[in-house]
Amino acid sequence: MKYIIFTLISCLFLSFSVSAQTTGISGTITDSENNQPLTGVNLLIKGSLVGTITDNKGNFNLTTTIPLPFTLVVSTIGYIKQEVTISSTAQVIKINLEPQTTFIQEVVIAASRVEENIMRSPVSIEKMDVRAVRATPSLTFYDGLQNMKSIDMVTSGLNYKSINTRGFAGLGNSRFLQLVDGVDNQTPGLNFAVGNLFGLSDLDAESVELIPGAASALYGPIAFNGVLVMRSKDPFQYQGLSVMGKVGVNHVNDPYTSAAPLYDFAIRYAKALNNRLAVKINGSYLTGLDWFATNYTDVDSKTPVAQRGENNPGKNSLNLYGDEISTTISGIGQVSRTGYEERFLTDYNIKSLKLNGALHYRVSNNVEAIYQYNFGLGTTNHTSSSRFSVNNFTLQQHRAELKGSQFFIRGYATIENSHDSYNARTLGQQINKTWVRDLDGNIVAPENANATWFQRYEAAFKGNISGVGANNHTLARSFADQGRYLPGSAEFEREKNRLSHIYGGATGAGVFSNSKLYHVEGQYDLSRQFKVVDVQIGGNYRMFDMFTDGTLFADKDKKITINEYGTFVQVSKELLNQKLKLTASGRYDKNQNFKGRLTPRASAVFSPTPTHNFRASYQTGFRNPTPVDQYMNLFAGAITILGGVPSNSQGTPAYTNSFTSSSVGAFAGAFRGEVATGVNPQQAILNNKDKLQKSDVAYIKPEQIESYEIGYRGMIGNKLTIDANYYYSNYRDFILNQVVIAPQSAVLANDGSINPQAAADLLGGKSHAYQLYTNANDRVSSQGATLGVSYYLPKGFVVTSNGTWADFLLKDANPNNIPAFNTPAYKTNVGVSNASLTRNLGFSLMWRWQDAFDWVAPFNELQPGRIQAYHLLDAQVSYKVPSIKSIVKLGASNLTNQYIVQAYGAPAVGGIYYVSLTFDELLR
Questions:
Q1: Which of 182, 221, 892, 915 has the most C-beta neighbours closer than 10 Å?
Q2: In this structure, what DSSP letter does residue 537 have?
Q3: pLDDT tens, residue by residue, 231-255
């Protein structure tokens, strides 16, 4: 990072000494249909970074040292790009731009990392431009991404949503890469993509491009399931002051609370001080009451399904925390602690503050230097293995970049601080340890609380407590709960605040991470040098610098860093009079803990005419284990969670001297069965010890994918656009967790048989459980298809529809070794819009439907939970007030207010109704 900053500063100083003869040109740009002047049109000298924009009368002035003649590239959103040759300063420049009614001229960058027409993209790609950002009926542009085909979006909180494509979805998805201005939008230590919690505001969002499926060949290991590339507005092109105020309401008809207001405010100011220097500042703030997770279904895995429910004394309700703690009491059966509802444990008053500033300096005609600083502060709720209250979490980013017409070099640093974040499930369990009384009425120490509570329950149920009826679970629970801190009480709030700030799951619920990520990358376009073929090369270096102070990793007394690098080359060639484009790329990546990986990609695009384009591609990808997968070292009482690199388990018997958990269960069950019939315990051990199996868990390694895709993108009759594709993917080496039990004695005797003493250790409490990160050898496949059509009707009406089909092929794999697919088989979007229903009035409607499916995740101990099919309607109507450069927008997300759940254990999401007022590009 310091070398990049030094280079940028050096270039800035050198630029002051550059002098050359200047040329000045001026002109006017208008709409070809009504001859009205166009404001904010971007003019760029081709092959350089020199340019300007038109003022509010459509006029422009440009001064440059580039000698005549040169070509001006003229572009703006909603109009077809033009190129105009300028040969003289005396030339009268008057340009009429033709409105763009379809996407046939749309340009994308993400598919090949170079600018190309979307019609000839070698892989499937979706794009949301600034017009779509403004017109989305969803609360924010990020929410509106769910209207793209291929995308699966899951709500974990009002201001936190998770994105995935093509299956194997999860919350905080680490298989999907999200970039904002080229910067990875993930937390370095906790390893979840922050999505809409931080990142771009609606005022600064210029475009979004989505590549579904494997993209590792160009973007590295995180782009295993796809990549989302978000770009902010350039201060040279988008100038002036923009202000937005949005007021809304949610929780309408919510049985758990009354309707609640939400507020979203944003401001953006950008100014080009001259042709070389521009500045930009942004600020936005969203606050409201988060959605409630209130599913109290009994999901206790130790109770047969038919016996679960309200009358189950061992009940484990999904969104109650603390009732996971249970035991089997002789003569009674399984009994669980009384839990606390999530809505009393977490912080539902969410917020999201985003601040950033950028300085852009054009060092020369072909080189621009950028420094940007981002700061985010947020409170939200995140679903993972537990429900986490991400409380006052901060994320800082420094970005320095030097870019030209053929290259860029970029470096950035990301710094996280979890501050007041905590695990809501652990918090419920820890509060339950603070108030338990013994039979004499004295509060016991936390380490004795659970055992004492069960003793009270047993005594009451068996009739040993005066005044408490025997054989009554309700009365026994009530007696055991005497002194329980009630939600909302001063004692409850005191313990909630205290325990949420104690880090580490053994004694508290706090989550601590102050980890950092450093990343440097560059790319160069060698096409001018090779001429006969287009060639791009690039590479990157990345370092994770972990610090959790021993709460998540074993980094209390040692430093944990992870280094990795990658490099790629891409070659493309047009043949058959530019009707056939062939592209091949290859990337090599190396992480310090794993073998190097080569990920090739090859594609062909055949375009018999400009409006009909057929594509085929072969893509590969891989995913390195996250830092958590590699170095997690969390002691959680009865179990220790260990990451899967060899150095992380040194000094433990987890990989070298342990039994499989399934064989321990079989052994224990058989042992108890024989003892119950009168067999001597020592003999029962000898009779059943061979049911135990020594574990053989491999150290962790990357996941791998290969994918085949065919597609078509075209236009018929200048009215109907079609984009269709089919893909087939093979996966292997999925990362998963495996539990082993390690006895104190050696697992094997000298002769290689099961050691009876090790078996006895399991029964005598002389063992410990480990949850290990490893891989499955099983191979599975998935396939799917998407179809998107748009029809352009007269007078500006547009009808759009898309559908996605996804299918999981288990083949011969063990389902216990495969991550959950967590994706509906079918989903669709249908929309109608008109940006100019009248001169100033526009609207859009979007109806969305998805099929039912089973969601499987660690939150529910990998048990399937049903996600019901649902359909939603989003709508907005907007009115422009040109005299004050403003737009009034009235909208609703989930207009019919259906409370739906998108992931099992996540909150029920209802409607949001809002009105916004936006002033755009004032003070230009």
A1: 221
A2: E
A3: 999 999 898 999 999 999 999 999 9
Q: Is the Cβ–Cβ distance between 398 and 373 less than 8 Å?
A: yes
Give the pLDDT score at 103.
Answer: 63
Are 128 and 140 in contact by the 8 Å Cβ rule? The answer is: no
Length of the chain: 924
Q: What percentage of the chain's residues is helix, strand, coil (to nearest 5)?
A: 15, 45, 40
CA–CA separation, 372 and 181 (whole Å) = 10
Write out the two tokens for 563: 């280094």
511 Cβ neighbours under 8 A, 6+ residues apart? 190, 388, 418, 421, 422, 423, 503, 551, 552
Q: Evaluate the CA torsion angle 640, 645, 648, 652 in order and state its sign.
A: positive
Summarised one tens digit per residue, pLDDT across range 173-232 is 788 999 999 999 999 988 888 888 898 999 999 999 999 989 999 999 989 999 999 999
> How far is CA 628 from each of CA 552, 625, 649, rounded to the nearest angstrom?
8, 8, 14
3-state DSSP assignment of residue 88: coil
Is 194 in contact with 133 (CB distance < 8 Å)? no
Residue 37 bridge partners (DSSP): 30
What are the tokens at 98?
């033709």
pLDDT at 924: 63
How far is residue 359's CA from residue 340's CA, in Å, rounded to a whole number?
A: 49
Please list the residues that pair with 567 across neighbouring strands.
Answer: 539, 588
Cβ within 8 Å of residue 200, ≥6 positions away: 141, 142, 180, 230, 232, 354
**Tokens 């100011």 -> residue:** 269
Give domain limits for the chain. Answer: 2-100, 305-346+425-500, 629-700+737-775
Contact 827, 869 (CB under 8 A): no
CA distance 66 to 365: 7
- The contacts of residue 300 (CB under 8 Å, 6+ apart) are 308, 312, 314, 315, 316, 326, 334, 336
Residue spans of beta strands (DSSP E) within 103-158: 107-108, 116-117, 126-129, 151-157
Which residue, among 144, 127, 115, has the nearest Cα to 212 in the 3D structure?
127
User: Which tens digit of pLDDT belongs to each residue from 252-290?
Assistant: 999 999 999 999 999 999 999 988 899 999 999 999 999
One CATH from 3.40.50.2020, 2.40.50.90, 2.60.40.1120, 1.10.357.140 for 2-100: 2.60.40.1120
Please report, to the nearest 10 degrees, the dihedral formed by the alpha carbons of residues 664, 667, 669, 675 taken in order.
Answer: -140
CA-to-CA distance for 624 and 220, rounded, in angstroms? 9
User: In 3D, which of 549, 597, 775, 521 has the Cα closest to residue 221?
Assistant: 597
Indicate the residue type of 392.
N
